[in-house]
């Protein structure tokens, strides 16, 4: 059980909340309090709009522990509109084949259970093909 | 007779509304293929909406509430209550509503609780929100109703038990896209459907679910409210009833004197099934998606156990500018991936892995 570790990440995972640098205005995700672009202190929270496009992707058939119930699934590097590149699962693909450049939008979904069926449920961002 | 209407002293309404329907569809004929040798006559609906592997009432509520917030255009920090009605909350103990309140930015200055009243838990939350806002205790309250309903394999309910729902930001009438003029609740102890603690699937009273339960409560709620308000069916542009299948809401409408045209935009069960706590209110969102300022709407929910909540709603001139700010209910219904019974069994966790 890793309750505090998940709890600490609630905000960024539920709503794609990162930071904006007050010095160079770069948008930062995940939040790290130091701007990776200019090195200045960056603690102002910033909620990303959730839109982006697939930068690259792969489909996982042999899933790591905890994710085996949902395999096979596709993991993508998503280039957010505001700049950062985030790693996340794609979901709700239906018959859609993922492609590089495909526009996607953030949704909050169940990522896994912490441990077995008795553990807490962990929710977080995934991306789906944009609905409009 | 005392005044039985539930009417706040300060006028309230719907400031924003949002819906969610997952993308997978299980045709009723597919259930019939597996359980009754493919007999395709008399199926209660065409197909039902099924949630994906990573979806539950928390994730679906979040999307519906986010859509409602997009339309409302308010600061989530001004929300004083998040109430979510469902009979399929993912935790037995730990509120769905705390997760939703945190994720939308309404925490920590907020009331949060989960409602349960079978299929009317969502409208129960709406009436509570009307009270909180109508008393002046809060400017905004969020009320939602969603389900990922379960039916026992092969049971009559498996054809219809579906996933989806809707959410509303309730606020002052002057900020609303539709005012809620009054509501009325009709509740009795009627054992038509239940699920005992630790049981996976519900039990129901077969035909007992019709006359003494659904029809009695739905028609009494609608009729009593209209009598108290001095209205008649022709005063309403649209009407929405709880929809456990395609037939019941059409019959309830006809019993009360409503026409097929009045219930048309809100009758979704034939193509998405019975979304339980989401059913009547999803119909309301689909109706608001097409309604015009001045339109009057009657909505009657029904929850087993049993009871009905009736609402009298009037669309304001703020609706047209807000409805395009989020996905419409028909956008979700049009997004459709058909699945077979085997995939359904996997998505709903009906395959024992250990």
How would you characterize this protein structure?
- The complex is a heterodimer of chains A (132) and B (354).
- With 132 residues, chain A is mainly beta.
- Chain A has one domain (3-129).
- Helices cover 9% and strands 41% of the residues of chain A.
- Chain A is built from 2 helices and 8 strands, in the order ααββββββββ.
- In chain A, the strands form 2 sheets. Chain A has a 5-stranded antiparallel β-sheet with strand order 6-5-4-7-8. In chain A, strands 2-1-3 form a 3-stranded antiparallel β-sheet.
- In chain A, a hairpin with a 4-residue loop joins strand 5 and strand 6.
- Chain A starts with a helix and ends with a strand.
- The longest helix of chain B has 20 residues, at 210-229.
- In chain B, helix 2 runs parallel beside helix 3 and helix 5 (210-229) packs across helix 6 (247-256).
- Chain B is built from 12 helices and 14 strands.
- The N and C termini of chain B lie far apart (59 Å).
- Chain B folds into 2 domains: 12-177 and 326-347, Peroxisomal Thiolase, Chain A, domain 1; 181-320, Peroxisomal Thiolase, Chain A, domain 1 (3-Layer(aba) Sandwich), CATH 3.40.47.
- Chain B has helices at residues 28-35, 57-72, 96-104, 121-134, 210-229, 247-256, 260-263, 269-272, 279-288, 319-322, 329-334, 341-347; strands at residues 12-20, 24-27, 47-50, 79-85, 111-115, 140-148, 163-172, 178-190, 193-194, 203-204, 238-241, 296-300, 305-315, 337-338.
- Chain B has 354 residues and is of the alpha/beta class.
- In chain B, the strands form 3 sheets. Chain B has a 9-stranded mixed β-sheet with strand order 5-4-6-7-1-8-13-12-11, with helices on both faces. Chain B has a 3-stranded mixed β-sheet with strand order 3-2-14. Chain B has a two-stranded antiparallel ribbon with strand order 9-10.
- The interface between A and B is medium-sized, with 23 and 24 residues.
């Amino acid at each position: 059980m890793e309750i505090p570790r998940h709890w600490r990440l609630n905000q960024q995972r539920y709503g794609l909340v990162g930071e904006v640098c007050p010095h160079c205005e770069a948008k930062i995700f995940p939040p790290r309090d130091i701007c990776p672009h200019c090195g200045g202190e960056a603690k102002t929270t910033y909620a990303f709009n959730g839109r982006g496009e697939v930068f690259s992707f792969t489909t996982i058939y042999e899933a790591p522990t905890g994710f085996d119930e949902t395999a096979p699934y596709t993991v993508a590097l998503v280039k957010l509109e505001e700049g950062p590149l985030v790693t996340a699962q794609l979901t709700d693909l239906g018959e859609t084949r993922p492609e590089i450049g495909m526009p996607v939008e953030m949704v909050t979904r169940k990522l896994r259970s912490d441990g077995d069926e008795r553990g807490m449920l962990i929710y977080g961002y995934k991306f789906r093909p944009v609905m409009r | 007779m005392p005044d039985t209407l539930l009417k706040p002293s300060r006028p309230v309404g719907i400031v924003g509304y949002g819906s969610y329907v997952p993308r997978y569809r299980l045709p009723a004929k597919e259930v019939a293929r597996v359980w009754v040798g493919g007999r395709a006559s008399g199926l209660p609906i065409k197909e039902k909406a099924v949630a994906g592997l990573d979806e539950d009432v928390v994730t679906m509520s979040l999307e519906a509430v986010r859509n409602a917030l997009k339309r409302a255009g308010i600061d989530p920090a001004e929300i004083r209550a998040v109430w979510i009605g469902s009979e399929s909350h993912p935790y037995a103990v730990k509120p769905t509503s705390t997760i939703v309140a945190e994720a939308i930015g309404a925490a920590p200055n907020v009331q949060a609780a989960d409602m349960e009243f079978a299929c009317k838990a969502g409208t129960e939350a709406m009436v509570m929100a009307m009270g909180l806002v109508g008393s002046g205790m809060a400017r905004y309250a969020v009320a939602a109703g969603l389900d990922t309903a379960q039916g026992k394999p092969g049971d009559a309910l498996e054809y219809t038990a579906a996933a989806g729902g809707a959410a509303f930001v309730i606020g002052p009438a002057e900020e609303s896209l539709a005012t809620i003029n009054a509501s009325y609740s009709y509740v009795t102890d009627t054992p038509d459907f239940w699920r005992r603690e630790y049981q996976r699937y519900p039990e129901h009273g077969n035909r007992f679910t019709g006359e003494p339960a659904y029809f009695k409560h739905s028609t009494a709620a609608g009729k009593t409210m209209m009598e108290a308000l001095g209205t008649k069916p022709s005063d309403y542009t649209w009407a929405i009833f709880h929809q456990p299948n395609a037939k019941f809401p059409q019959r309830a409408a006809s019993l009360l004197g409503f026409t097929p045209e009045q219930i048309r935009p809100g009758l979704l069960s034939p193509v998405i099934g019975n979304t339980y706590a989401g059913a009547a209110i999803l119909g309301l969102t689909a109706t608001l998606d097409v309604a015009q300022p001045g339109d009057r709407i009657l909505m009657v929910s029904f929850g087993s156990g049993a009871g009905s909540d009736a609402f009298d709603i009037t669309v304001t001139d703020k609706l047209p500018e807000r409805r395009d700010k989020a996905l419409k209910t028909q956008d979700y219904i049009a997004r459709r991936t058909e699945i077979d019974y085997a995939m359904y069994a996997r998505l709903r966790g009906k395959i024992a892995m250990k």
